Amino acid sequence: xxxxxxxxxxxxxxxxxxxxxxxxxxxxxxxxxxxxxxxxxxxxxxxxxxxxxxxxxxxxxxxxxxxxxxxxxxxxxxxxxxxxxxxxxxxxxxxxxxxxxxxxxxx
Length: 107
What we know:
Helix content is 89%, strand content 0%. It is mainly alpha-helical. It has a domain at 59-106.
């Protein structure tokens, strides 16, 4: 009977270990693997979306740089023309010269 009890205890131990392994999440590994793949696919989609936006951003920056160059040239020319006008006491008393000075300042 002692040998029967030992065998029964071993069988009970094997059954309880099998039940423990079945309940510990071994069967959820494929589900979790699919969830991980889905999450990683979402990350890759975001990277692809950002990569698709880069050419538009580059074009925008190039356009703004060209506009900025035009503004710089215009400001430089305006400053140069404003400094060419000389102001002295006769300019303030002469209305035509003062209008020319005011027009140069308005540019």
